Structure of F-box/FBD/LRR-repeat protein:
Amino acid sequence: MEEPTMSSDEGDRISQLPDEILINILCRFPLTNAAASTVLSKRWQHLFPSLPSFRTGMSSADVLLADSDRYIASMRRIFRSRRTSGNPIKIVDIWADADKKKFDLIFHSLCSNGIEELTVSAAHDSSDYQIPFCIFSCQTLTKMASWGFVLQVPRKFTGLGRLRRLEIGNTSINDAALKRILSICPQIEELILDHCRGIKNLVISSHNSLARLRIHSYYKCPAIRITESPRLTSVALLRGNEYDYEYVSEDDDLDEEELQGGKIWHLARFLGRLSQVTSLTLSFQSDHNDFFEDFVRTEPVPESLPNGKCLLDMKELYLKLPLLDERFTSILMCLLKALQICSISQLECFTEG
């Protein structure tokens, strides 16, 4: 008895999906993977030339290091063909190196053709390579991520009116440059600082759009001052490979003493300002206890959070604390006291030590 077989049309279920869904799937792949995956569907190969994204993937870093001329030539050829076909690329995720002149031409071309999302990563230690100034005049950018470069702001920079998300990782940028970007890019909703060099004092003031802030550092976190940011509801501070503490909050001003950071009182005061928090995560690694390096053990630990009205809307709480350390035990007790009048729907607590 013969087994039933499916026709090619019946087996190609992917082709039955709408174009919007297929394009969305292909956009998530690096370029080489997206091209290879067209064998999965007879329609994918026809959609491939109109994809709005260009992602090179990790393997392209090796190609760049081995033959940068071929790498750049292939990119320029693709960008040129897409531009002439009337389907310019809007989302770009590429590797770059320290050959400034060659890559400046690439960036100038992208900016002049209305790029909307740009992620650029260093293929090696490119500490001398600066992000070209043309990017700071690209008014179509909505998302930008820079990994491994020097980020300097040109004097004539007047802002990126559509920029919503800024991610800076393993990048050299100073306090003044970051403050200037925030002050003249009022539409930024999400700011991510990942292992940035040069930031010592982060000041966020009168920013009415910023909703999410994430700071990750292998070293000591910068001093942070947040004032008049009414939409700021999600803030995360991370140390090493784990969270030091993460919280969802609306924060107000910190005085100069608190800006020094590192003391358990700093954390207690900060938690005391969380008047509208609904989800809170505290996660400290025992091998990163140097976060409280300025703490003097003879100093009394707090018994309660300063603001009795904080955490009233708390719904979710996640804790991972080394409770053998009295500093973290005191924070746990402060939280439990504050949560006595809350309606917690989810509570998870893990301890170390």
Observations:
- Residues 68-84 form the longest helix (17 residues).
- Residues 73 and 259 are 49 Å apart (CA to CA).
